[in-house]
Amino acid sequence: MFKVLEPGFFTTIQDAGRKGLRDKGVPSSGYLDIKSAQMVNSLLENNSGDAILEITMTGPTLQFEEPTFIALGGAEMPAYVNKELLINNEVRQIDSGDVLSFGKLKNGFRTYLAIKGGIQSAEILGSRSYFKPLTERSRIKSGDEIPYSPHSDFHPKISSIKTNSHLKQKHLDVFPGPEFSALDAESKVKIFDSAFTIAKDYNRMAYQLQEKISAHRISMITSANLPGTVQLTPSGKLIILMRDGQTTGGYPRVLQLKESSISVLAQKKFGDKIFFKQV
Amino acid sequence: MSKYPISLKLFGEKAILIEWPAEVSESILYDILAFAEHLRSDQLDASLWELVPAYNSLTLICSKKIKDTDQLIEQLKGWYNGVKSLVPVKRQLWKLPVCYDLEFGIDQETVASTLELSIDQIIEIHTKPVYTVYGIGFLPGFMYLGGLSDELKIPRKESPRLHVPKGSVGLAGQQTGIYPQESPGGWNIIGNCPIPIFSVGEDKPCFVSVGDRIKFYPITRAAYDLYKIETQVGIYKIEHSIVDV
Asked: Are B75 and B195 members of one domain?
């Protein structure tokens, strides 16, 4: 196991998420930036759905109790094993007693820490992903002890990789959503012609955008949402649902993000600009 | 079984949205559920697909990218129109106890004065109908119930509460429902149901399904405490019966 000495701003355990319970109102959860999560799991030759830490904005300080191998990916945040710098997408051997700590976020918003064999915390409804109140916790806390199986013999086929990063990508690839056709002509143009800024309310449930498009009176009966659904409120505000987002809603679904663009958005923070690009 | 004109749309790269006429109607809901059952048991690979029914729509969500979307949409139309008669699904009627004491029903007095009803009348009107579950969403286990009497129509509270206790039974617009977990919320709270609608420890975490029916009945504070303990130790049996629809 590793011990949490400092939890960081918002650090959670995430895996590929919960399946089969959306009709009971349970969101999928799981890694927001699947692309980065898959990269770190692949480097350690883990299974693609293995549980890892999702580190938001500031990093935790962790002490490892058993030998293992780790890899970091996603947002660029300098990390140190004891005092030695660890870069993203590189496999690093860990001895018992090693302390992992982080410096200041440089680029992106969410960093992923994978451990050889995956985190072995308890599964709740088929997943280790934190989602309160299904899980007791919404994030890790100081003093938590998080289990993994020790590994001291591992020869990675690839020990480090330079990736084609999506951290700097500004456009989100989208499909028209089920209610796109109900928009007025001006909004249909404006939504693709404007840059939008990430507003203060943004988290694993949803990202709100600052700039509004026209107010509307489109009414609809409550229906299903998906991760990546772009909702339009009556006042013209756009809300992009993420993986903890509610499974049903009554706001028109004007756009739907391509799966890969959820990973792009997961790396954005307050004040960042994005624009929508039709696939 | 009646047939409706349905429309099918791609919803991103992993989902298909099927819509029935835009009405809140039980016969539409049951047609959707019967078609969903047909898809689940005879047509779609249940390990790949999640089906989310709500009011007049059915959303089919695939865990992978859908390859040949046009072909699948045609197939779905064919399956809907081709099935001679969909087998009606059996639904449960759940009887849920609610304690309407003012200790839980923190907005009872406001509701009573706004609607010009006595608290006893509110309880009588609220426990009279058999409600239909048109959808489950917003929170795990949160039921969208249809069938509230017009006499209990009341707007949402102007400013939502940050913490509405778990089990709270509320009114807002044409809706009534139970908060399955503590959550922020703007509904007018008239009571509390001691039976958890969603429990993570169970094999089936949520006993209610879309299409089921709900009937509330009033209980005393003493019964509330008893049922709460009975649920915690796992001996409370929710009263229910099968209804044909």
From this structure: no
